[in-house]
Amino acid sequence: MAGVKNPTTAMQKMLTEITAQLSGGQSADSRRRGASERIRGTSATDREEGLAAIGHRVVHGGTEFVAPTKITSAVIKKLARYNILAPLHNPANLAGIKAAQKIWPKVPQVAVFDTAFFAHLPEVARTYALPKKLIQKYGWRRYGFHGLSHQAAAEAAAGALKRPVEDLKIITCHLGGGCSLAAIDRGQAIDTSMGWTTMEGAPMMTRSGDVDAGIVLDLAERVGVARAREILNKESGALGLSGCRDFLDLLKKMSVKDRPSFAIKLARLSALSSPQGYPEPRRQSGHRDAPSNPARLAVDLFVYRIKKYIGAYYAILGGCDALVFTGAIGAGNPETRRAICANMSILGNTRVLSVPANEELQIARGAAKLVL
Fold first, then answer.
1. Sheet holding 351-354, edge to edge
2. Does some domain include residue 60?
């Protein structure tokens, strides 16, 4: 959620606290009650002071919502259709919208969509190799997510390089609880790792990422579709492999002898912007892999899959001017970035950057364009 047009410091603090409350892990009703309690006692005048609009991040807008959209009851009904495609996000997004409408009934509310940045992916990138009639019937395609973050990261990279984004080939890595990568050619997204839903792509904290469709079918046959969806969304990824829900906990659980295989002794690493010369990760000896620390396996798998995506996107872009890390993990512990960049000689002339996620700025800009 982002307020537009110079809110006071007190108002900005209130918006931040309400946003945190609405994005918490409780039920939708609990989130709404928490937000309402935070605002209770504040006068209507104070609530709306300095606000020209309130912008909301909505994760999935499908092909129907590809630009900032003023929220009406009809729009809310249409957005609810996408809940099944983004079950961890869209219901919470809608809960935030409904709560904000009650708190600020006179302030225009605007939805800004994570999928919009990828609305014009090339046909070859957005199409799945499935029967054409079924694709047309059910609307299967690569939508892509974290678009607000990827767009902000690309623009930040252009600013750091002091070059127009339209002149650059950029790979962006949004790494957090959810993870996705994007290939951006002169400001236009041409591919991204997430697909029809937020489950595809790199492994995440609770989501599986890429997995053989045969396994998904087998799982659904064994436990049922609803249970399979819950397992793939909420019980897989790093949590499923290691029992850890937090990436920092994963690093802490890696033993001292395991850490060099991941971070490769930080003292020996070159500057982050010069990946050449990174030492080779230590390999297991013997014909078969030795039993691994679950935390180490989860981290190594995370790093390995991201490296694969970076290499693929470098190839389809035909080079890369900037590799940008963002999100809580991407812009957080530098060990992760260093491990991902290790032994990637293709990055020799690529600037590697770390920028904090700034989705709020993109939301505010989108809302401002619509109402100001």
1. 188-192, 179-185, 169-175, 322-326, 351-354
2. yes
What whole-number distance in Å separates Cα of residue 361 and Cα of residue 52? 15
With contact defined as beta carbons under 8 Å apart, do 281 and 264 qualify? yes
Which residue is it, tokens 């401002």? 368
Taking the C-alpha atoms of 152, 154, 155 and 159 in order, what is their torsion angle to the nearest 10 degrees?
Answer: 130
Q: Is the pTM of this model over 0.90?
A: no
The DSSP code for 239 is H
Please state which of the ranges 89-93, 203-207, 270-274, 280-284 shows the lowest mean pLDDT. 270-274
So what's the pLDDT on residue 273? 37
Q: Is residue 114 flagged as an active site residue?
A: yes
pLDDT classification of 4: cutoffs 50, 70, 90: low
Q: Are residues 329 and 253 in the same domain?
A: yes
Q: Which residues contact 177 (CB under 8 A, 6 or more apart)?
A: 204, 205, 206, 328
> Which class for 212: exposed (0-12), middle (13-18), buried (19 or more C-beta within 10 A)?
exposed
Residues 109 and 173 in one domain: no
Q: How far apart are CA 51 and CA 46, in angstroms?
A: 10
Q: How far apart are CA 61 and CA 113, in angstroms?
A: 6
What is the DSSP pairing of strand 188-192 with strand 322-326?
unpaired
What tokens does 214 get? 């045969």
Q: What is the mean pLDDT of the chain?
A: 84
CATH of the domain at 75: 3.30.420.40
Catalytic residue among 29, 46, 114, 249: 114
**pLDDT, tens only, 288-319:** 555 578 999 999 999 999 999 999 999 999 99
Residues 101 and 188 in one domain: no
Chain-centroid distance, C-alpha 182: 10
Domain range enclosing 273 = 161-208+235-354
Terminal CA-CA length for the chain: 17
